[in-house]
Sequence to fold (670 residues):
Amino acid sequence: MNTDVYLQTLFDIVRAKMAADPNPLSQEAPRPTRPIAWSVDDSSELYQVNAWGKGYFCVNTAGHLVVRPDMDAAREIDLFDVVQGLKERELTTPVVVRFSDILAHRLKHLHGAFAQAIAENDYQNKYTAVFPIKVNQQRLVVEEVYRYGKPFGFGLEVGSKPELLSVMGMTADAPDRLIICNGFKDDSYLEAAIIATKLGRTIIPVVENFEELPAILRIAEKYDVRPKIGIRVKLASEGSGKWRESAGDKSKFGLFITEILEAVEILRKKDMLDCLQLVHCHPGSQLQDIRRVKDAINELAHVYAELKILGAGLQYIDVGGGLGVDYDGSGTNFASSMNYTLNEYANDVVYRIANVCNARKIAHPMIVSESGRAIAAHHSVLIFNTLGTSALDQFKVTGKEDQESGVTLPQPVRDLLDAYRTVTERRVVECYHDAQTARDQVLQMFNLGLLTLEQRGLAERLYWATCAKVRDLTRKLDEVPEELEDIESILSDIYFCNFSVFQSLPDSWAIDQLFPIMPIHRLNERPTRTGVLADITCDSDGKIDRFVSQRDVKKTLELHAITAQDEYYLAAFLVGAYQETLGDLHNLFGDTHVVHVRFHDDGGWWIEEVVKGDTANKVLEYMEYDVADLHPALARDCERAVREGRMSVAESQAIKRFYEGELNGYAYLE
Fold:
C-alpha cells in the first residue's frame, strides 16, 4: 500500500469514529464494576517481602506475616499468633521479638559462604568472624552469638573498656577464640587486655593511634607478657555511603604507612617484631558497592604482604566490617541496599588476599571479619499497634452548600465550591490549581477579619474534598500530570502508632535509614489507604515518612482502613543491628519489652526468654528523680484534699492506688 492510500484509509477510519461520537472525550471509558481480587501474593509483591526478607520472612495463606528461622518452608512462626500469645501472657506491644534461630542461621550462613570461597580459591588457611558487640550490646544477644558461633570458632570484638570487661567474664571456657580490641585505649583498657593475655585468652589489642604502641609494650613488660599486637591501616581507598569517611586520609582511626614503618622499627629494636600478628582495616559500615570492598581488601592485602616480608610475625588479616544488609531488597548501589551477595563478598575477600599472597610467595593468613550488621540485623522485629488515624479526605460536602447556608458566600469560598463541582478528568489540573488559589485567598481574608470561623471551616472542607476528587480521578489516568505527582502524599493518612522512633528506630530519625515496615496481618485484603506513621512522642520529628521500594523511596505506606476499636499491628524488620543500643529516652519512653522466640521441633513456637520493658519509675530514675519521694508526696496531697473536704477517703485511696500502679506500669500506652 502506497503512502497516499494509507493516509486516505486512516482518514476514513477517523471520520467514521467521529461521526459515531463527535466528542469522544466527553464520555468515560467503561469501568469495571467489581473490585479486582486481592491475594497474599499481591501483598507479598506490594511490600517486597521476598526481596528484603531473603527467605526469612513471607506471607502465609491466612494473610499473616510468618518467620522462617532457617529459610525452611516447613518451619515457620506466625507473627500475629506470637502477638496474640504475648497478650495472653500480659505482654503488650510495642515489643521487640528476637528470633534466636535466625541469629544461629546467620552465623552458619556466614561461615558457609567463606568455607565455599576458601575451597574454590584453594586458600591455605581458615576464616573466622568476630562479632562487634557495639552492634547489639544486649547481654542475651552477645551470649547467643558467642554460643552459636562456637562450632565455627567465632570470637568477639570490643571497642571500649566496659565492653572488654564484659567479654573477659564470658570467655573463660574458650581461650582459642579471638578477642579483638578496637577503639581509643587508655592504660587501664590496655592493662585489662594484657591481663586477659596472661589468663590465656587469644586477645589482640589493635593500635589505632601511634601513642598506644608504647603503652602496650610498657604494660606487657610489667606483666612479663609477649602480647599479640594488631595495627589498623589508614586506607587510601575510599569508603561509600553514609560512612564514606571511615576510610581515607581523614578517617578517625588508623596509622599512616609512615607510622606503621616506624612501629615496625620500634618492635624490631625490642626484638618483638614477631608480636605484630594482625593487620586491620575498616572500610566503612553498610558498604553498598562491591567495588569499594575490592579496593579496600586489595590495598590491605598488599600492606600485609609487605609487612610479612619485612619480618613481622603476621598471622591474621582483619578486613573489618562493612558487609551490608539489603534493607530495601533492591540489590542496588543504594545507601539502604547493596549490589552484591554474601557469597560474592566472601569470594572477593578470599580471592584478592590469596592472589596477593601467591604473587609474593608468602603464606596465606587467617581471614577475620567484623560483620556485625550482617549477623544481627535480621533476627529482631519491632512490633507495634496503631492507636488511630487522621485522614484529610474525611471531609464530606454536598456541593450545595451555597443553597443550604441561606447567605451569599464570599467569592473565594464560591470559587472552591465551583472547583469541587467541576472536577473532571479533562479539568483535573485546572480545578486543583483553582482550589489552591481560592484556599490562599480564604486564609488571607480570614487573617484580615473578613471571614467568619464557620466560613473558613466550610472552605477547609471544600478544599480537602476537592483534593480527594482530584486524587481519585488521577488514579484513573494513564499518565499522572507533574503538578499532581504529590497528591497521594499530600492526602495520605497519619497512622498514630504506639512506639518511639527515637528509642526503637533511632537510625530512621538520625540518618534516614530505611527499614522494611508493613502490617503483619490482613495481608489477604487489599490495602485501601496510604499513610505515614507517627509515634507517641510529642516531637514533630517522631514520624516515619520514607518507606522501602525497589524503584524509589516511597513517601507513603499502603495500609488497611481501621477504626479506633480495631487491632492493627505493624512491624519494622531488620532492626537487630544498632537500634537497641542507640535508642534514647525522648519523652521518657524507655526500652520496650523484648521476647526471645524459638521454633519448636513439634511445630509452633515457644518463649525462651522475656525481658520486661521499662516501667515509668525506672525511666524516672534514669533521669535522677527520687521515685521513693513521689508516692508519699501524692499521698500527702490526697490527705490534704480529704481534710479540706474536696474528696472522700475512698476516692483518696483509689487515687493513691492508681498512681502507684502507673509508676510500676509499662512506660508505653497499654
In short: Residues 596 and 609 are 5 Å apart (CA to CA). Residues 617-663 form one domain.
